[in-house]
Structure to design on (287 residues):
């Protein structure tokens, strides 16, 4: 299994002696499966003056993090697209690929925890909201013709059922400990299953993306969308009938009750007992 890190390099609500905001590098390991031990995930943090904010400082911070970690990352995810050039260069100087991604669950939780508990305890703390990274909406793109499924369905599983996920036959997958998202065992987790005679290339193509979340759009025409990377959006299906549109609303309602946790699966046909692809996801409110 690859080692993936999540990274943020941004200003914090703390100032230095010159009343200039301090910046901070945060690095943490991504949980990649349902049985990952959250307490053992690697973490690293370091503050920088605003005059030290550059790719060289980031590269040195990553060198320190790698020296402290038991393993070198195969790739690094980051969600602040406005920092893309600096983060990409700092990572690539070390021969590590950097990927814009909204799949940064561990990092997002850590930032929120530090905003509530760590920064307010530091000298020269300045209260205020964290800068937003909201991006303008992008135009959803159609899936490549060869990768479109023949059928798809809205489904759901109780959260407790994911305890058996290590025993499922899956070709391409990524998950996280479901309790990490604050979801109770009896919570219904909504999902989408895509059935395709080209299930393997479809799942392989999806595994090469930074899958973020699935959402429904009630814009006309109503659609089921797959969000990837920092801002990419793909059309999984058009919701052309009132019953489908109601199912989509039910899907979003279950997502809300499950703290935005949901899943996307790919199978060759409805009778298959194996998954060609399976991804557990959470739609995050990144800040």
């Amino acid at each position: 299994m690859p080692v993936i890190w999540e990274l943020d390099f941004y200003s914090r609500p703390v100032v230095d002696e010159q009343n200039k905001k301090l910046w901070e590098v945060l690095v943490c390991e991504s949980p990649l499966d349902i049985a990952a031990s959250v307490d053992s995930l690697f973490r690293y943090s370091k503050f920088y003056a605003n005059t030290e904010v550059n790719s060289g400082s980031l590269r040195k911070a990553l060198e320190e993090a790698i020296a402290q970690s038991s393993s070198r990352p195969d790739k690094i995810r980051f969600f602040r697209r406005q920092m893309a050039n600096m983060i990409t260069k700092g990572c690539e100087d070390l021969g590590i690929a950097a990927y814009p991604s909204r799949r940064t669950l561990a990092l997002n939780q850590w930032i929120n925890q530090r905003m509530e508990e760590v920064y307010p305890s530091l000298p020269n703390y300045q209260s205020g909201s964290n800068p937003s990274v909201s991006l303008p909406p992008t135009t959803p793109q159609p899936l490549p013709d060869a990768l479109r499924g023949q059928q798809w369905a809205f489904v759901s599983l109780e959260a407790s059922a994911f305890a058996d996920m290590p025993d499922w036959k899956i070709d391409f997958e990524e998950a996280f400990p479901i309790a990490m998202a604050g979801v109770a065992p009896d919570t219904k987790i909504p999902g989408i299953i895509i059935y395709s005679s080209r299930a393997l290339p479809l799942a392989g193509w999806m595994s090469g993306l930074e899958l973020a979340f699935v959402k429904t759009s009630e814009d006309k025409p109503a659609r089921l969308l797959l969000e990837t990377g920092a801002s990419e959006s793909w059309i999984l299906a058009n919701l052309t009938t009132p019953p489908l549109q109601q199912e989509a609303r039910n899907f979003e309602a279950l997502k809300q009750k499950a703290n935005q946790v949901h899943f996307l699966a790919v199978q060759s046909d409805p009778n298959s007992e194996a998954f060609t692809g399976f991804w557990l996801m959470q739609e995050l409110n990144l800040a």
The mean pLDDT is 92. The radius of gyration is 20 Å. The longest helix spans residues 242-257.
